[in-house]
Design goal:
mainly beta; Glucose Permease (Domain IIA); 8-stranded antiparallel beta sheet; 3-stranded antiparallel beta sheet; 31% strand; globular; M23ase_b-sheet_dom; Peptidase M23-like protein; Cell_wall_metabolism_enzyme
């Protein structure tokens, strides 16, 4: 769009029979799109019910570096996102599965009776195994889901979609 100053300068040229070439200002470059937000991960259990959340604690301090989800023994456990199984075995007597995801983050699932082997490629929502009965970590059987970026522990619920609300009968907390 031309300003009034440019238009005023063109009128005498046209009256003199001269042609004028008007250069338009360059079109603005398309705005760079913001980097895409990380895709939300899927819960490893259905329905998801968090019984203990993440404690953000100092590196060597005691704390809870993950989330615990209410579970039933034998309940299927699924990968929260696509990746490669880097470990499937026992640690301190409990079954553990570790998945390194395509974005470099690492999730751990325990206690799990592994249905996959180290080196296996898994898709988001793909089966990892089933919840093993091990109430030592929680009061009842639960699945512990951990998340790390290198050596830094992160809150896995920050990447997970909020569970759908559940309506309870009146009089129930």
């Amino acid at each position: 769009m031309m300003g009034s100053t440019a238009l005023t300068a063109l009128v005498p040229l046209a009256a003199a029979g001269l042609a004028a070439v008007v250069l338009a200002p360059p079109a603005p470059a398309p705005a760079a799109s913001a980097p895409a937000a990380p895709a939300a991960w899927a819960w490893p259990l259905e329905p998801p019910r968090v019984v203990r959340g993440f404690d953000d604690v100092a590196r060597y301090a005691a704390g809870h570096r993950g989330v615990d989800l209410a579970a039933a023994p034998g309940q299927p456990v699924r990968a929260v996102a696509a990746g490669q199984v880097s470990f499937a075995g026992r640690v301190a007597g409990r079954g553990v599965v570790v998945v390194v995801h395509d974005d470099g983050l690492r999730t751990t699932y325990e206690p799990v009776e592994a249905g996959v082997a180290a080196g296996a490629r898994v898709v988001a929502g793909g089966p990892l195994g089933s919840v093993a009965p091990a109430p030592a970590h929680c009061v009842t059987t639960c699945l512990h889901l951990g998340l790390r970026d290198g050596e830094v522990y992160l809150d896995p619920s920050s990447r997970l979609r909020a569970p759908a609300p559940v309506l309870l009968p009146l009089g129930r907390p």
